[in-house]
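User: For my dataset I need records formatted as: sequence, then structure tokens, nothing else. Please produce one.
Assistant:
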Amino acid sequence: MERLKRRGITIIAVTFTLLLLAMIMMTGESITALKYLFIGPVSSIRSITEVLILTVPLMVAGLGFTMMLYSGKINLSGEGSFILGGLTASIIATQFIVSSALHPVLVITMAAVAGGIVSLICALVDEYLKTDIIIASLMINYIVFYFSNYYLTNHMRDPNAGMIVSKEIPKTAKLPFIFRNIDLGILVAIALAILIYFVLYKTKFGLKLKITGDNLKYAGNLGINAPLISIFSQFIGGSLSGMAGGLYLLSAFKRFNWLGMPGFGWDAVLIALMAKQNPIKVIFSSLLIAYIRTGMNIMSRQTGISPDLTMIIQGVLIIIILMPKVREVQSKATKTGA
């Protein structure tokens, strides 16, 4: 445990050292840049609101990867699930107009189903075709991404707009606001974190899922239908990522215009690993990532430093943190003959 703590502190120290050096090389004003990075997100009500809005999709996507990782599988399809969830939410919001009370429920539900299908495909390919799930899930992200671009450009584009965007999302599809621009999504996200915690730690399904993730062969010996448990948990995880995409679209956008990867699926990996797969801790780790993202956006506007710098460093962090988990899963699979 002490070694893990030291390793975590080392990773954080190296990350901020790299960040500081990059700032110095780019602007020569590292102190000013760091001030905007760390103080900017709490410098105004508007900035705090921006952090909280960003926390919602990060939290729900983080819960999704937590759910998938609990099965003992490293399914990295969260980015594809997030994108397809956003695309589906836009289609349902603009094409299927129902009563204002049911409209956002329908939109978010269908976004969740679409996201679940993405992760389900990876889970089935892994289980029945014995294809490496990491490779399959990475590739499906790009398939979904380019399909989304194609569909937006050729079938959803608003001909009256001067850019590649969907029709405007109607107000009936939006969740009600509870404070300024913060909508009901933040309460939904917190409720989901509590629900997932209860499912994983207080139910028979959670116990079966933990046994399956820890030792597939032992789970089979206990009479647990391990493949079904694993596949179902990955479907639920993908559904949460798709729901995150839908919630983000409804809260932060007037139109669907995601022509680039939003990156929330990769954020979810870091959030879940930082939280050590604890759904309650996901609330705080997602808040931290939202804080850093918002700080980088403010710093970029004030100093000209690209926010892509954070994504580069974050990518390195994910590789460093994820590699031991990959070795752990591979070691379990070798020992159990899975």
